[in-house]
Design brief:
The protein is α+β, with helices and mostly antiparallel strands. It has a single domain, classed as START domain (Alpha-D-Glucose-1,6-Bisphosphate, Chain A, domain 4), CATH 3.30.530.20. Helices cover 25% and strands 41% of the residues. The protein is built from three helices and eight strands, in the order ββααββββββα.
Length: 130
């Protein structure tokens, strides 16, 4: 299952935005309002939970400064990645798009597609808060 957020413009350089996203504690500012839990559990990992959804542990899997940051699920139960693609527009602005890629059975994919799409759109829309 592949989902993507709309591309959003952020008034930060690509390197600055990459650095902010590389610090996992900053993801708390991107979370939707219905967040039930957010806990940093290491330099490159955090756990978050949304109301009526199971808690998910995310770990930074790959960094390619300043254009790409890949987060992945720490559990094999829900195998997925969330990739932030950053494009420099100028010295003070950049575009970012989030891509979600998961390997789920068709029934699970059908159940989570809507909530996951809304979630990644919210993360992208909140990028300006960083």
């Amino acid at each position: 299952m592949n989902l993507e957020s709309p591309k959003v413009s952020v008034q930060k350089s690509a390197q600055n935005l990459f650095d902010l996203l590389s610090d996992v504690k900053n993801f708390e500012q991107l979370m939707p309002e219905n967040i039930a839990k957010f806990e940093v559990i290491g330099a490159d990992a955090f756990i978050f939970g949304l109301k009526a959804m199971p808690e998910i542990k995310l770990v930074i899997k790959e960094k390619a400064a300043p254009n790409k940051l890949v987060l992945g699920a720490a559990s094999d139960k829900l195998p997925f990645t969330l990739t932030a693609s950053i494009d420099a527009v100028s010295n003070t602005s950049s575009d970012v798009k989030l891509d979600f890629e998961g390997d789920f059975n068709p029934m699970m994919a059908m159940m989570i597609k809507g909530p996951i799409q809304k979630f990644i759109e919210t993360l992208a829309e909140n990028m300006h808060k960083l």
